[in-house]
Write a structure and sequence with these properties.
The chain is elongated. Helix 13 packs across helix 14, helix 14 runs antiparallel to helix 15 (about 325-345) and helix 17 crosses helix 21 (about 450-465). It folds into 2 domains: about 20-270, P-loop containing nucleotide triphosphate hydrolases (Rossmann fold); about 275-480, no CATH class. The chain is of the alpha/beta class. Strands 4-7-10-1-11 form a 5-stranded parallel beta sheet. The chain has a 3-stranded antiparallel beta sheet with strand order 12-14-13, with helices on one face. Strands 2-3 form a two-stranded antiparallel ribbon. The protein has helices at about 30-35, 45-60, 75-80, 95-105, 130-140, 165-170, 175-180, 195, 210-215, 220-225, 250-255, 260-265, 275-285, 295-310, 325-345, 360-365, 375-395, 405-410, 425-430, 435-445, 450-465; strands spanning about 85-90, 110-115, 145-150, 155-160, 170, 190, 200-205, 225-230, 230-235, 240-245, 265-270, 415-420, 470-475, 480.
C-alpha cells in the first residue's frame, strides 16, 4: 500500500552526511592520554574501507537516501572505495552525483583526534606542518588534542573558471610576510582547500570547469601528495580522498579534464536517471519539500511526465532532464493546493488534478528544447502531461466501471471544479446516483479523507475526458467544467 506524500517537518529534513544524534567524543585530551587509550591511527582511505566492510557484513545500508543505484552505480563505487581510489563521477545534471559524494562522509570514523589549534587538523601521532612539529616536540605527551566529527571532515568546492591555484592549493600570505618572515619560510603559506581537507574528503563539483592550468596544479597533490607554491616545494604527506563530479558533455562544451589528471583518478563511475518508475516516485517523495498533501497518484503523474520529457526527441538529450524537474513539479502542485486552501478557508490543503496545470509554466524553463521546436514548448509539455495522466488512470482505475459516472453526467448539470472550488463543494456537486462509483474510485486509490477523495474523483473525470467519453472546458479564470 502506498500513501500520500505529506509535508515534511523540519526534524525530518537532514543532509545526507549528517546524523540526527552524535555520540560523545572520546575522553583523551592530551597525546599521552591518547596513547594510553590504545588509539590506532588509520588513514582516511583505511577508515572508509574498514567501515564500508563492517556495514556490508552487518547488512547495514551504507548509502541512506540513495535511490535507484543499488545494482548499477553503488557496486562500482564500493569497489573503488575498497581499492582506495580517488573517484570522478560522471553523469547528467540532477542525477544525484553531489548527494552520492556527501553520503561517503558516513563511512568515516565518527570522531577523530587532531592537534588542538593546528591549521590542517593533523593527527597527534603525525604532525606535518612546521608549527605542529615544533609544538609536538616541545610538549611531548602534554600536547593538547581535540576531536573532530566526521561531518566536519568534508569540504566541497564548485569549480568555476575564476578558481585560482591559491583557492585549491595555497598561496603566500602577504600578512605573514609583513610580520617579518621571509618568502622562503613555509609558514608564510596560506593553505588552500585541498590541504585544509587533510584527513578528510574534498569534493570538486563540475571539474571540467576548472581552467587547465589549475588542473595541472592538482597533479602533485593527487599523486606525490605535496604542494608547490610560488617557486618552492613544501613536502606535505597529505592524507586526503579526492572526489570529483562532471557532466560528460562538459568535455567538449565548456572544458575538459586534462589527460594526466584523469589518469590519476583511480575510478571513473557513471550515474544515470532512475531506471524504474518506482525509483522516480521514491526520489520525489524523499526530496520534495511539500507544503500540502499530495496524493501518491499525483506524484506518479509527475514522475511519468518527467520520464516522458526526458525521452522526448524534442528535448535536447545532451542536457538531460534533472530530478529537480520532478521535485519542483511536486512542490509547485503542493503550493497550488495550499494557495487554494488559504483562499477558500479549507482546513486541509490537498493537491488535485486541476493543480497539475500550474507546473507547465514553472517547469518549461528547466528544459532545453531542440532548436527547431521554438514556439512549441508549451504544446509539447501539455501533450506529455496528458499522456502521463492517461497512463496513471489506466494503471490505477483500469477495470473500474465508470459507465455510471458517464451516464449521470450526461443526464445532469456539468461538474465544475478548479482552483476556486473546494473539495467539499466538488463532492457535493456530483449528480445523484454516483456515490457508489465515487466510493469505488476512492477504494481503488486507497483514499479516505474528503480532500483526497475529491482528488481521486478529479483523476477519474480527467481520465474519462482523455478517453473521449466526456467533454471538458477550461477558462482563463481557473475554472474547469466536465460534462
Amino acid at each position: 500500500m502506498r500513501f500520500a506524500a505529506r509535508p515534511r517537518s523540519v526534524e525530518e529534513v537532514s543532509t545526507p552526511h549528517t546524523t540526527t544524534t552524535r555520540s560523545p567524543h572520546p575522553s583523551p585530551r592530551t597525546l599521552g592520554e591518547l596513547r594510553a587509550s590504545g588509539h590506532v591511527q588509520r588513514s582516511v582511505k583505511d577508515e572508509i574501507r574498514n567501515n564500508l566492510l563492517t556495514a556490508l557484513r552487518s547488512g547495514v545500508d551504507p548509502w541512506p537516501g540513495i535511490l535507484g543505484f543499488e545494482t548499477t552505480v553503488i557496486p562500482h563505487l564500493e569497489r573503488a572505495l575498497l581499492a582506495g581510489h580517488d573517484v570522478v563521477i560522471l553523469g547528467e545534471r540532477g542525477q544525484g552525483k553531489t548527494r552520492l559524494l556527501r553520503t561517503i562522509v558516513g563511512l568515516l570514523d565518527e570522531w577523530t583526534p587532531v592537534i588542538e589549534g593546528s591549521e590542517l587538523d593533523e593527527h597527534p601521532f603525525e604532525p606535518i606542518t612546521p608549527a605542529s612539529i615544533r609544538k609536538a616536540s616541545n610538549l611531548l605527551d602534554d600536547l593538547p588534542i581535540s576531536w573532530r566529527h566526521r561531518s566536519e571532515r568534508y569540504a566541497e568546492k564548485l569549480a568555476t573558471p575564476d578558481t585560482s591555484v591559491g583557492d585549491l592549493v595555497g598561496d603566500v600570505d602577504p600578512m605573514k610576510v609583513a610580520e617579518g618572515r621571509s618568502l622562503g619560510d613555509p609558514e608564510t603559506i596560506h593553505f588552500g582547500l585541498i590541504p585544509r581537507a587533510h584527513r578528510g574528503i574534498i569534493a570538486i563539483n563540475e571539474l571540467p570547469d576548472l581552467a587547465e592550468r589549475i588542473q595541472v596544479a592538482m597533479l602533485n597533490v593527487m599523486e606525490e601528495r605535496d604542494i608547490q607554491v610560488r617557486g618552492y616545494s613544501l613536502r606535505l604527506p597529505l592524507d586526503v580522498v579526492l572526489m570529483a563530479s562532471a557532466n560528460p558533455e562538459d568535455y567538449t562544451n565548456r572544458g575538459r579534464i586534462i589527460s594526466p589528471l584523469k589518469d590519476r583518478f583511480g575510478a571513473e563511475i557513471r550515474t544515470h536517471y532512475p531506471i524504474e518508475l518506482e525509483d522516480e516516485i521514491a526520489v520525489i517523495e524523499q526530496e520534495a519539500d511539500l507544503t500540502a498533501t499530495v496524493p501518491t497518484f499525483l506524484i506518479e503523474i509527475i514522475a511519468r511526465f518527467t520520464r516522458y520529457v526526458r525521452d522526448n526527441p524534442a528535448i535536447d538529450q545532451r542536457s538531460g532532464v534533472s530530478a529537480r524537474f520532478a521535485i519542483a513539479g511536486a512542490e509547485t502542485v503542493a503550493a497550488a493546493a495550499l494557495h487554494r486552501a488559504a483562499v477558500l478557508g479549507e482546513d486541509l490543503a490537498v493537491a488535485r488534478v486541476v493543480d497539475l496545470s500550474s507546473v507547465i509554466e514553472v517547469l518549461r524553463g528547466k528544459v532545453e528544447f531542440e532548436s527547431g521546436e521554438e514556439g512549441r514548448e508549451i504544446e509539447i509539455l501539455e501533450h506529455l502531461l496528458r499522456k502521463a495522466t492517461a497512463d496513471t488512470v489506466r494503471e490505477h482505475l483500469g477495470g473500474v466501471d465508470l459507465a455510471t459516472l458517464v451516464t449521470a453526467l450526461e443526464a445532469s448539470e456539468p461538474v465544475v471544479t478548479g482552483d476556486r472550488v473546494s473539495a467539499s463543494d466538488l463532492l457535493t456537486s456530483m449528480p445523484e446516483g454516483t456515490e457508489p462509483v465515487v466510493n469505488k474510485i476512492a477504494e481503488r486509490l486507497e483514499v479516505v479523507d474528503p480532500g483526497e477523495r475529491a482528488s481521486a474523483l478529479e483523476l477519474a473525470l480527467e481520465g474519462l475526458f482523455l478517453a473521449r467519453r466526456i467533454g471538458k472546458e477550461a477558462d482563463g479564470t481557473g475554472q474547469t467544467v466536465y460534462g
